[in-house]
Specification:
The protein is mainly beta. It has 7 helices and 34 strands. The protein has a single domain, classed as 7 Propeller (Methylamine Dehydrogenase, Chain H). 9% of the residues lie in helices and 35% in strands. Strands 29, 30, 31, 32 and 33 form a 5-stranded antiparallel sheet that branches. Strands 3-2-1-34 form a 4-stranded antiparallel sheet, with no helix packed on it. Strands 4-5-6-7 form a 4-stranded antiparallel sheet. It is globular. One of its GO terms (cellular component) is cytosol. Belongs to the selenium-binding protein family. It comes from Dicentrarchus labrax.
């Protein structure tokens, strides 16, 4: 199969590609990816917007090889040429969706800026440990060619193009559309969706070509969330609560699944990695729920709530009830475990999802958060009857903020995480993190029985950066990972 020329590889291609050295980027299957090389470096966008430091955001390269003399250190910084971009999530020019095409290489990191609406294309192929800017797509190209702004999630397509979901129009109103970039020149090609068919809000998306489907999610109107979170904006309809089902071939919207109040602010969409799967999960931030979406026997799509993290009644906080605020979820490459972070409560949870409709909690660790026992917040009533956790101290550093972005090693044995969500919300909910910088931590995973334990020897303290404390966000390995690779 050429890159994206069909959904199924002919049998002779499968035999050849399992061991061939001339294949395209990524791995033949999710289970093959689990046998891939151990991660040695990781890329993280580092954000200065909304801090007291007037410096450009930058892409940090961190050494995570325990055998290295620079283990747990930032070994390279690539500053952007502009201020206040708000670098956020990144993707690739090519991934496992192009595995069958030996002409493709995973050598460019696509780095959209959530607030400035720029898209930086970073060369990570020439020198993976010292990336350089390859091209900059200016906001005007998104505005004029697509009528879109605030780019968020980037995925490479089997066709060789790159697709980026957007959250707004150029005026800051909510608008969920998709920008296509040429995979070679990185010029803006145009919209993926048909004219007039953008949805009210945008955020994340995931596609499953074998079932001719894409599912997208919703955060909120950029101008409502740009300076922080106002609960009144939820009631006023400035935040989303729906999943959108799209026909992958025709680019037409087929369905909208309204998840209701319990599904308010559905963020990360994660299909199971098995390309034959017709189900996945979405983490819904505001009420601390996870919904399972699935294809019904009739051929349409539906969703059901399968996990709920109850809010805690508190005093000494902005509101009388504190949600967990599920902000990132991911699924292990063997589709056995689901992980998510409760950014406000401060815990990371691991669920066995072997029974897809009945996830079973098998691991939980607190790493900071807003209810630590020596903090200003007192928990008055907790439906889960958990004691307020002690502050988390790693290598002598008290962890500010709460666990947020997650990334799992290919083999599923190490879970990495950072504490910054989005600079305006960081400033509002964790002002100490603005002053001290965020951190990167790592947990060891029991992949047999389930279970999480903190690696007490691992800490990257972004409070010690040369230009001052910075907010480090999403994590990407050069060889791909379980939140960026899609298999055809």
């Amino acid at each position: 199969m050429g890159c994206g020329l069909g959904y199924h590889k002919p049998p002779d291609t499968i035999k050849a590609s399992a061991n061939c050295s001339g294949c395209g980027p990524g791995y033949h299957s999710p289970l093959d990816a689990m046998k891939g090389r151990r991660e040695e470096i990781v890329y993280l966008p580092c954000i200065y917007r909304n801090t007291d430091i007037l410096k450009p955001d930058y892409l940090a390269t961190v050494d995570i090889d325990p055998k290295s003399s620079t283990y747990c250190q930032v070994i390279h910084r690539l500053p952007m040429p502009n201020l206040r971009d708000e670098l956020h999530h990144s993707g690739w020019n090519a991934c496992s969706s192009c595995f069958g095409d030996a002409s493709k290489k995973r050598n460019r990191l696509i780095l959209p800026a959530l607030i400035s609406s720029r898209i930086y294309v970073v060369d990570v192929g020439t020198n993976p440990r010292a990336p350089q800017i390859h091209k900059i797509v200016e906001p005007i190209d998104l505005y004029w060619k697509c009528g879109l702004a605030n780019p968020h999630t980037s995925h490479c397509l089997g066709s060789g193009q790159i697709m980026i979901s957007c959250m707004g129009d150029p005026c800051g109103n909510g608008k969920g559309g998709f920008v296509l970039l040429d995979g070679e020149t990185f010029e803006v090609v145009g919209n993926w969706e048909h004219p007039g068919e953008a949805v009210p809000f945008g955020y994340d998306f995931w596609y499953q070509p074998r079932h001719n489907v894409m599912i997208s999610s919703e955060w909120g109107a950029p101008k409502s969330l740009v300076d922080g979170f106002n609960p009144a904006h939820v009631k006023e309809g400035h935040y989303g609560s729906s999943l959108h089902i799209w026909d992958w071939t025709t680019h037409r919207r087929l369905q909208t699944l309204d998840l209701g109040e319990e599904g308010a602010i559905p963020l990360e969409v994660r299909f199971l990695h098995d390309p034959d799967a017709t189900e996945g999960y979405v983490g819904c931030a505001l009420q601390g729920t996870v919904f399972r979406f699935y294809k019904t026997p009739k051929g349409d799509w539906a969703a059901e709530k399968v996990i709920s993290v109850p809010s805690k009644k508190v005093e000494g906080w902005a509101l009388p009830e504190m949600p967990g605020l599920i902000t990132d979820i991911l699924i292990s490459l063997d589709d056995r475990f689901l992980y998510f972070s409760n950014w406000l409560h401060g815990d990371v949870r691991q669920y066995d999802i072997t029974d897809r409709r009945n996830p079973r909690l098998v691991g939980q660790v607190f790493l900071g958060g807003s209810i630590i026992r020596d903090g200003p917040v007192k928990v008055l009533e907790d439906p889960e009857n958990q004691p307020q956790p002690p502050p988390r101290i790693i290598k002598g550093k008290r962890i500010p903020g709460g666990p947020q972005m997650l990334q799992l090693s290919l083999d599923g044995r190490r879970l990495y995480l950072t504490t910054s969500l989005y600079s305006a919300w960081d400033k509002q909910f964790y002002p100490d993190m603005i002053k001290e910088g965020s951190v990167m931590m790592q947990m060891d995973v029991d992949t047999v029985n389930g279970g999480l334990s903190v690696n007490e020897d691992f800490l990257v303290d972004f409070g010690k950066e040369p230009d001052g404390p910075v907010l480090a966000h999403e994590l990407r390995y050069p060889g791909g990972d379980c939140t960026s690779d899609i298999w055809l």
